[in-house]
TrEMBL record:
Belongs to the Integrator subunit 8 family. InterPro entries: INTS8 (IPR038751), TPR_INTS8 (IPR057980). One of its GO terms (cellular component) is chromosome. The gene is ints8. It is found in: Chromosome; Nucleus. Pfam families: TPR_INTS8. This is Integrator complex subunit 8. It comes from Takifugu rubripes (Japanese pufferfish). GO terms for biological process: snRNA 3'-end processing. The keyword Nucleus applies.
Amino acid sequence: MSAEAADRVAAVASSRPSTPLQTSWFEFLLDGSLLEKHLKKANPDPTPVQLIVQFLEQASKPSVNEQNQVQPPVDNRRNRTLKLLALEVAAHMKWDLDVLEKGLTIPVLNMLLNELLCVSKVPPGVKHVDLDLSTLPPTTAMAVVIYNRWAIRTIVLSSFPEKQTKPGPHQMNVINILQQEKEMTENILAVLKEQANDSISVLEGALQLKKDFYVHTLRTLDLLAADTAANGETESSTAGLCISADELHCQVHYDVGGIFFHQGCTDQTAYQKARDHFRQTKDLLKKLDSTVHVHLDEKRLAGYWNACKALTEDCDSDSQTTAYDQINSLIRAHNYQAVIEAFIRDNVTHSLPNHFRQSVLREFLYKVQQGESGLDEVCHKLCICNAIRDSLEGEVLSVRFQQLLLKPNKWMVDFILEVCTLSLEKEHLSETLRRKIGNFIKTLCENLEELPLLFVVSSHKLFIELLKEEERKVLMEQMRKKSATINLSAKPLPSFYDIPASATVNIGQLEQQLILLLEPRKIRQTLIELHGLAERSYWKVNNKWEVPPDYINVILSIKDNLTKDLVYILMAKGLHCISIKDFAHARQLFTACLKLVTEFSPKLRQVMLNEMLLLEVRAHESMTAEGSKERPPPDLVSRVRGYLEMRIHDVPLRQVVGEECVTFMLNWRENDYLTLQVPPSLVMNNPYIKLGQLLASTCKELPGPKESRRTAKELWEVVVQICSVSIQHKRNSDGRLSLIKHRESSMGILQRSKFITFIKKIREPLVLTTLISLLVRLHSIVRDDIVNEVTAEHLSIWPSSIPNLQAVDVEAVAVTVTELVSYALTLNSNNQSWLITQADIYFVTNQYSAALNIYLQAGAVCSDFFTKVVPSDVYSDQVLKRMIKCCSMMNCHTQVAVLCQFLREVDYMTAFKALQEQNSHDAMDSFYDYIWDVTILEYLTHIHHKRGETEKRQIAMKAIGQTELNTSNPEEVLQLAAQKRKKRFLQAMAKLYF
């Protein structure tokens, strides 16, 4: 035991009794014998699967070098020992995939089994399907079998729907970890699915071997750790745990049958292969006396077997025909009457489970949907049989049966009564079942509306035998009432409106009408009628009617109730029409409301004028968003200016009106007005106007030869304050001090969320570029990572430091810049500057695949999909180096080597290092045609010759032998050859990543 562990135990011993301390993972490193003792405990804590996770997690932790760069895990003795410990725990569990799959995630289990392949000396770089299992050492062959069993089982398990686990509180690092794990799982599944046929071939090869198999145990893994495998003991025929050929074949047949069944939905012949494998599984299970090493669900196997027989029309003479088989054979023979009779018989015997009966009905309904004629009656009869079975079991009647009762007919009622009678033909029938059928008959009577059908039921013997006298009397009374109603209704009525209705009915109908109407005149008329019937507040009729809180008090202070209702409803309906972009009706409603309030309230008149201005601004912006290039009419611009200069007191003003007027002016480049003519008092009182003025001033001065930094600095300070927090101490009611965080802003209350909302109403590219530039600069300062900085235009106009850096909310800045760039790209996805910024954001947050995708998009949009040369200011050396790192981090090392040629000075060191990597996830030699640098091609030839890779060496030799790459060629020829390969390579990359 380590000293630290001893101290912890001593500390606990001196205190009150408590639960034993959990053994830490590092203690197993210090004491080689501890693992076996721990695993032999009745309830070890941590459990075996927890230990595997801890060992692999510690062994795969990335390291950080002196430049603070994240590096892959170091391959040292500590990490190798940890991986071996994880394998020893799995060996103790006898490689039971059922238990391992339940306790470990797909990425962890993938890592574990890859380690098993590694220690079992499976030849690296060779596909498993190309291995001859009969010539491999026993433990090596078994490792290959275990891995490929897991591969196909994982494909099958991943197809089952799973309830998503809810993460805890929304912490950024937790969400990132979950997202990374999800992406890793998806990547692993994609590879497993791609190699599924190879895995099946490997396992089918294992089924051909008739010898016993051996799998690693704690002892054999200890021998590997002690490096005593040189004597061949771990590779001998007797090393490891012996698993008989029959046991392994039984398990493999089951797993391979599962993957074939999974593939059956796209390949009908796969069901026959699955059936054959499941038959072999069943035969071997009978043959085996004990199944220590066979882990399968026999109920699931039985389900698979029944499903395969039904799907492949298999007549298994060796086994007794089940009720399932009989039904399936009748369906295949199109003997539908016999299926119905079988369902009726089953109402007595209860041999078929309800879910099977429901699935048969669904199958017939599906056939009807596919256009198969003559099956409607069969569906109705099966539905009736299932409904009566539900009644016998005390279940709720299905919706489908209740829908059937909405349109009943004579044959249907006769069939219901017939099935009920046949379902009771059983000796010693219990009173409970009779009572349940009686209740069903009672329900039937209550649902039938037509008297002739009711008389059919009431005259049947079941009605008399199963229902008590009191129940029969009640039902007969209901039938008489229905009869009287029908007789009254038989008289012809001159008109629906001649029927006298109560005041309550009239009010309800008028309120419904009021909710639906959009014509102002009809709304007024309806309100007059309602007030004539009952004097109350009709603006409350629909809780969806909402007017802005700023106006509530002014409207509700109107004394006349009818006028109050009319103003409220017209405004609420108009605002709703604007929200759904029905601007024509909104204009009608607002115009009527303006006309009404002009007569008695100057304050409300100004409110309506403001809302009508907002309506026109939104209508024009909506047209622009749909592709209109038409500038706003001068009248509208003049009205927006008038609103921004308005000085009327006591008029409730909505911030959103000022906000959208400012964004309107910015979008239509009315910068001179915003910078010169807006009254200073208005600027000080409205944060949106202040923000608009600073943006307009900064944008106005940007194109000049000398970029002014004064207004840019003011804008910078405002945005910094929006993204800042301050911490104050406050004393609670109990006297204790607590910390409070709140936003600071010299512009008044403007939270970051409102700032984002404001930004997302701007469409003008120059304004958006300015804001992106500012936030990118701010992001770089707060992150303080010179190596991984995000780039953007006009960065030089912003300050290079912040006095109170601790007050800036780093997360708020990161989220804001991400949201802003994403929004800008929704407006113009071809803006190369925004694309580079977006790619940089992905890059600095280690999302390398997404970053490379966007870098390629940026190059594509400025070169007509790489048919022209990508400008050097787009693919600068910095961008190219980042693309190289993206490829490197994704293990696409050949792509790294090709991109190293794109730099102004070819980076031979990086290219050579990349080409030395053998575990490359790209197409490797298929990229050699894109290399034009002879030095790199010569190095490739040397590497392949050194490794004995003859075919790849030939490809490299062919590439280097092209006449256009001859170094004696004129410079123009060499440049042309390079440009041609650049274009083809970038187009190939785009196809890969787009």
